């Protein structure tokens, strides 16, 4: 263990009770995407108290940024946390359970915000050792997508060389991290399809153009994008998640509505899928005399971790946690994360921070980011900032 790491760990232990308090306060007072007013104010107050520089609020929505070592030369390392909660009713019965009906930190962004605040606090006490300025990004609206894009549009990546974020992960033990270079999480797009036929009496189908039969063929045909058109070595998901049509036993409706998600792990392959869908939908509709409207909404790109940044995280992880606690993730996941927007602009990486295997899954009503994971995340982020 390096001398800096020993000092970081000591500082982390000193500030930990305060950060645990912050985490529980945030857990009790969650705010939905785009409404993170009080969370942002709390973050800004702490950054001010610890003497961060160039603190800005209202960045791309309710985003907050601050810098340590502003007078230092050179491009910055950015550390990012997300702040928003989910529209889920919490049921775990924690003493600090959400006080807001139907809103909770079911993805652990309370833990991410507290961890990054902890790192800012530790580094504010060690700022004379910083080799380059560190920028702290507290991002709103991750769950609804748009928070990262808003902050980027506001210019947060100016003079930033690389960016790092973490996500608490229930399948990893506390004290462990999971890393992976290259694709780590999937792109996620959505589509809305209206198939228009002409309705009529169910007993006389030949007098109608049945949108249900047409849309059923479309559901089947769309599966051939991943099974017949894209290489088996490229992972693509085309999932129809909604199929709405009809109101009666004896009436063929005029329209059918399909909605769904498209995911992938390769941004080039992703760019081709919309055209493939359009061709298949147009072809099936033509075959069955129907018409259609297809709206394809691009969501988040693939999270592609930079190999050099991952090497730095690996080294910092080995120093802080021990090499045996740095796990290399064999496979990406098809979940999505708007951190991908930063990675389109500059090199960076997201890693997974173990919150323990006894914790329930992300986005469930009993999820609770483990306080035990906080010191490991704080120390690791602080370690990345120092030489
Ligand atoms: Ni999340």
Q: Which homologous superfamily in CATH is the superfamily of the largest domain?
A: Zn peptidases
Ligands bound to this protein structure: nickel (II) ion
**What is the strand arrangement across the widest sheet?**
1-2-4-3-5-16-6-15
CATH topology of the largest domain: Aminopeptidase
Tally of DSSP helical segments? 9
Based on secondary structure, the structural category is alpha/beta
Proportion in β-strands: 25-35%
Kindly report how far apart the N and C termini lie.
13 Å
CATH class of the largest domain: Alpha Beta
**Helix and strand run:** HHEEEHEHEEEEEHEEEHEEHEHEH
Q: What's the pLDDT, averaged over the residues?
A: 97
Q: How many structural domains are formed by the residues?
A: 2
Report low-confidence residues grouped into runs of 5 or more. Answer: none
Task: Count the beta strands.
Answer: 16
Q: How would you sum up the major sheet? A: 8 strands, mixed
So, CATH architecture of the largest domain? 3-Layer(aba) Sandwich
């Amino acid at each position: 263990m390096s001398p800096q790491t020993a000092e970081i760990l000591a500082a982390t232990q000193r500030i930990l009770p305060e950060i645990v308090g912050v985490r529980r306060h945030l857990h009790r007072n969650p705010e939905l995407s785009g409404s993170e007013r009080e969370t942002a104010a709390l973050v800004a107050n702490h950054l001010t108290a610890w003497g961060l520089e160039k603190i800005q609020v209202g960045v791309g929505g309710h985003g907050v940024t601050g810098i340590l070592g502003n007078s230092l030369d050179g491009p910055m390392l950015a550390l990012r946390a997300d702040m928003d909660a989910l529209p889920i009713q919490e049921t775990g019965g924690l003493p600090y359970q959400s006080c807001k009906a139907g809103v909770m930190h079911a993805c652990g962004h309370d833990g991410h915000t507290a961890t990054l605040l902890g790192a800012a606090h530790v580094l504010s006490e060690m700022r004379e050792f910083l080799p380059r300025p560190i920028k702290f990004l507290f991002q709103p609206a991750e769950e609804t997508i748009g928070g990262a894009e808003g902050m980027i549009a506001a210019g947060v990546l100016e003079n930033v060389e690389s960016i790092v974020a973490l996500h608490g992960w229930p399948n990893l033990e506390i004290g462990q991290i999971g890393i992976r270079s290259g694709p780590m999480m999937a792109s996620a797009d959505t589509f809305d399809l209206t198939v228009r036929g002409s309705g009529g009496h169910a007993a006389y189908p030949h007098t109608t153009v049945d949108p249900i039969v047409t849309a059923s063929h479309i559901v089947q045909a769309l599966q051939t994008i991943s099974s017949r058109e894209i290489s088996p070595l490229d992972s693509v998901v085309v999932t129809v998640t909604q199929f709405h049509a009809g109101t009666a036993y004896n009436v063929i409706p005029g329209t059918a509505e399909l909605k769904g998600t498209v995911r992938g792990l390769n941004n080039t392959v992703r760019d081709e899928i919309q055209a493939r869908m359009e061709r298949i939908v147009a072809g099936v509709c033509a075959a069955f005399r129907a018409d259609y409207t297809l709206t394809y909404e691009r969501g988040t790109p693939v999270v592609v971790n930079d190999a050099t940044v991952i090497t730095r995280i690996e080294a910092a992880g080995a120093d802080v946690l021990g090499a045996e606690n740095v796990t290399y993730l064999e496979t990406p996941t098809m979940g999505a994360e708007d951190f991908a927007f930063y990675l389109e602009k500059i090199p960076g990486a997201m890693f997974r921070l173990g919150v323990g295997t006894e914790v329930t899954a992300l986005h469930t009503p009993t999820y609770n980011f483990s306080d035990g994971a906080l010191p490991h995340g704080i120390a690791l982020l602080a370690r990345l900032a120092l030489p």
